[in-house]
Amino acid sequence: MLSNFFVALGGVVPLFCLMAVGVFVKRSRLLSEEELLHMNRMVFRVFFFFMMFYNIYISDPGTAFQPLLMLFGAGGVLLTALVFTGVVCRIEPDNARRGPMIQAVFRGNYVLMGIPLVSNIFGDAAIAVPTMMIAVIVPLYNVLGVLVLETFRGGRFDLLPILRSVLMNPMILGAIAGALCRLVQLPIPAPVLKPVAQIAAATTPVALIILGASFHGGSYQAHLRQLVFSVASRLVIVPAIVLPLAIALGFRNVELVTLIAVFATPCAVAGFAMAQQMQADAELAGNCVVYSSALACFTIFGWVFLLKMLEFF
Questions:
Q1: pLDDT tens-digit profile of 125-135?
Q2: What average pLDDT does the segment 217-239 reach?
Q3: Rounded to an integer, what distance in angstroms lies between the CA atom of residue 110 and that of residue 294?
Q4: pLDDT top residue among 280 and 266
Q5: How many Å apart are CA 192 and CA 66, to the nearest integer?
Q6: What does the alpha-carbon distance between residue 313 and residue 190 come to, in Å, rounded to a whole number?
Q7: What is the pLDDT of residues 82-113, one digit of tens each?
């Protein structure tokens, strides 16, 4: 039992230590809000590209490409969005809050916290599987997020511009470039591949530090009920439904922890930015990110510890 406890602890603690460094940076005023914004943009446009490229370029396609896992992950996200759209529409009359609530439930911080979670538990050699999942999960998050927020704003859902923006996402471009280079077996000289590997290795620590430094606590009294529902659904209810189903279908080890990363990580930071841009309740969306991230250190640990105790990985 003690060894299982330390496995779970080793998977979760490094993530939140890096976020704590970000909180320290913020409180020490080492970076201004504008500088954080520029750094966040750099990580998204540059670091994530190289991380995706490198992880896919060095991966073994036979191991990394898991079509059943990718299908289950995408189907689970889609079904979660559909089910909770119906639930939220029954319990919440305000359209400005409906979109952020639904998005908070189905859209997790998979890229920032999912890949390092798998890496911390199984080692860097195992991250090809969760990296490959990004090619399915991230576009689905984006399309569903815009669809939900536009619907409750009363706007028109235009698929082509959304698909265009998804294809121009640096993570998707990096995945495509890495897959093409791997497919044609393009040899990359060591002096070039080494800095690419260094940037890829720096991506997660820098991104998590920036995430910690970007948190803003807000007033929650006006939407406490909606906040509790969204965070509890994201961290407890959804994984309690999806993970047993995944186990019943035979997913184990890296695949199962990848699904923990998809369905049990805190609400995505991108959800807050989208709510701001699309006239939804941005304060509710921001609080979902802040409080789910704070509580996830306990809930993710709990899920990992429980499944490790049950010997599913």
A1: 788 788 888 87
A2: 87
A3: 15
A4: 266
A5: 29
A6: 35
A7: 999 999 999 998 888 999 999 999 999 888 78
- CA dist 33 and 37 (Å) reads 6
**What's the confidence (pLDDT) of residue 248?**
94
Q: Which tens digits make up the pLDDT trace of 173-208?
A: 888 888 888 888 888 888 888 999 899 888 878 877
Read off φ and ψ for residue 108, nearest 5 degrees: -100, 170
> What size, in residues, is the chain?
313
- Rank 50-54, 92-96, 166-170, 261-265 by mean pLDDT and report only the highest: 261-265
User: CA–CA distance from 125 to each of 58, 90, 116, 120, 308 (Å)?
Assistant: 10, 45, 12, 11, 20
* DSSP assignment string, 237-303: IHHHHHHHHHHHTT--HHHHHHHHHHHSSPBPHHHHHHHHHTTS-HHHHHHHHHHHHHHHHHHHHHH
Query: Residue written as tokens 């009363």?
Result: 154
Nearest to 112 by CA among 20, 44, 162, 26: 44
Q: At what angle do helices 2-27 and 190-214 cross, to 10 degrees?
A: 80
HSE of 182 in the Cβ direction (CA atoms, 13 Å)? Answer: 20
Cβ-contact 66, 129 below 8 angstroms? yes
Long-range CB contact pairs, 114-117, < 8 A, 24+ = 114/258, 114/261, 114/262, 114/265, 115/204, 115/261, 116/14, 116/15, 116/204, 116/208, 117/11, 117/12, 117/15, 117/257, 117/260, 117/261, 117/265, 117/300, 117/304
Read off the DSSP letter of residue 313: -
pTM recorded for the entire structure:
0.81
Closest CA to 150 of 286, 254, 278: 278
